[in-house]
Amino acid sequence: MFEQAFKNIDDILHKDAGCSSELDYTEQTSWMLFLKYLDDLERERELNAQLEAKEYNHIIAPEHRWSTWAAPKDANGSFDHNNALTGDDLIDYVDGELFPYLKSFKKAAENPHTIEYKIGEIFGEIKNKVQSGYSLRDALEKVDELRFRSQEEKHELSHLYETKIKNMGNAGRNGGEYYTPRPLIRAMIDVIHPSIGETIYDGAAGSAGFLCEAYDYLRQGGREKKQLSTKDLDTLQKYTFYAKEKKSLAYVIAIMNMILHGIEAPNVVHTNTLAESVQDIQPSNQHDIVLANPPFGGKERKEVQQNFNIKTGETAFLFLQHFMKILKPGGRAAIVIKNTFLSNTDNASIALRKELLENHNLHTILDCPAKTFLGAGVKTVVLFFTKGEPTQNIWYYQLDPGRSLGKTNPLNDNDLEEFVSLQKDKKDSDKSWSVNVSDIDQATWDLSVKNPNVKEEAPLREPKEIIADIIELNKESEAILAKIRELV
């Protein structure tokens, strides 16, 4: 049912002049889903208050509630078409009244960690792009069919929403910007092995895939599958996940994605992470775990570079410095970065590798195959490190799924099973090996992936040998042609 509803909503938006791509479909579906979710949440809270004989103060005023404008019902509980706004009236109300009202929540909210503040931020960032009030009415009716009441419903909706994000990533020019393959994220979380009470941070959140997967991992009791107490669940909801995201659309999607996974008021801040000086990061801002796939290929301006000790225009390298600083001593990180980081010979890259090796234990490097990220033409590696102790040995694993990856043949959990298994004891195999830091060139700190188990390709032959072979082959060809002539 949910899947069909999502398809129907996409079909409606596809026909509207204001929506032109998967990015628009996801953005517009997001704000409608958010308001429907909010309405269900308020109903649930009101019922709980009634059971406890308490008064419930609604977040949304009566005239702007979902049940008033989006899905009015008649006495029988059926959709009341006679009292439902449609056409130009609906567009005028949404653009002229609803969005400005919801945007005003940001100023009125007590602090940024409340759901009221999130409402204000979301509706200050996005606009209704649906131009036809009839299309919008149809879409609202489809969204109203969705339910957020049970954990199972939320789980199914979150799964479908993830699929939308994946499609959006494939449709956009920068696929990796929105979507990190979930099997890769799950393997990274498995190696990092978070536990309840630790804080988990992503300063380049995108659609918040890392935090959603980490939430699912911990919600299910982690590696040990332990039963969670009420206090554990409260800690998971409020004091575990922290994120920052610069782009408006990604910010909105991150919040919606976390909500659908079960986090009611996500700690996602809409900000440019790199605008913060690493010198200003205090111990109170630091986190136990960093999980991230920072954007690569971007170029940052000089004033942004001034916030960092090692100056570089490469966005991903600035993010890496931010992550190193924001980790608590003893904190653990798993970060996706393009593989050229391991071997670049510019001063910034060399200095950054030196800093990483001297002040962090870079214990594992996972080398990912080409096309791990759909739409991104670069090869990537995952760096796993612990802050506060120098690196002595690096364990490398060269991921080879034995097939060419692509849209119809993406990375799956089975592909990463061996990596996760061998990593626990850092065992050597055909695909894995260890390197002692004392063997690394200390002038360049080159960390290139060089699998010692793979035989080197045969050396290039001398030109004289090649010419001799060509002459020999020509002689053989002449002899064969002479025989054919005799037969004709």
From TrEMBL:
<keyword id="KW-0255">Endonuclease</keyword>
<feature type="domain" description="N6 adenine-specific DNA methyltransferase N-terminal">
    <location>
        <begin position="7"/>
        <end position="85"/>
    </location>
</feature>
<dbReference type="InterPro" id="IPR022749">
    <property type="entry name" value="D12N6_MeTrfase_N"/>
</dbReference>
<keyword id="KW-0378">Hydrolase</keyword>
<keyword id="KW-0808">Transferase</keyword>
<dbReference type="Pfam" id="PF02384">
    <property type="entry name" value="N6_Mtase"/>
</dbReference>
<dbReference type="GO" id="GO:0004519">
    <property type="term" value="F:endonuclease activity"/>
</dbReference>
<keyword id="KW-0489">Methyltransferase</keyword>
<dbReference type="InterPro" id="IPR038333">
    <property type="entry name" value="T1MK-like_N_sf"/>
</dbReference>
<comment type="similarity">
    <text>Belongs to the N(4)/N(6)-methyltransferase family.</text>
</comment>
<dbReference type="InterPro" id="IPR029063">
    <property type="entry name" value="SAM-dependent_MTases_sf"/>
</dbReference>
<keyword id="KW-0949">S-adenosyl-L-methionine</keyword>
<dbReference type="InterPro" id="IPR051537">
    <property type="entry name" value="DNA_Adenine_Mtase"/>
</dbReference>
<feature type="domain" description="DNA methylase adenine-specific">
    <location>
        <begin position="153"/>
        <end position="455"/>
    </location>
</feature>
<keyword id="KW-0680">Restriction system</keyword>
<dbReference type="InterPro" id="IPR002052">
    <property type="entry name" value="DNA_methylase_N6_adenine_CS"/>
</dbReference>
<keyword id="KW-0540">Nuclease</keyword>
<dbReference type="Pfam" id="PF12161">
    <property type="entry name" value="HsdM_N"/>
</dbReference>
<protein>
    <recommendedName>
        <fullName>site-specific DNA-methyltransferase (adenine-specific)</fullName>
        <ecNumber>2.1.1.72</ecNumber>
    </recommendedName>
</protein>
<dbReference type="InterPro" id="IPR003356">
    <property type="entry name" value="DNA_methylase_A-5"/>
</dbReference>
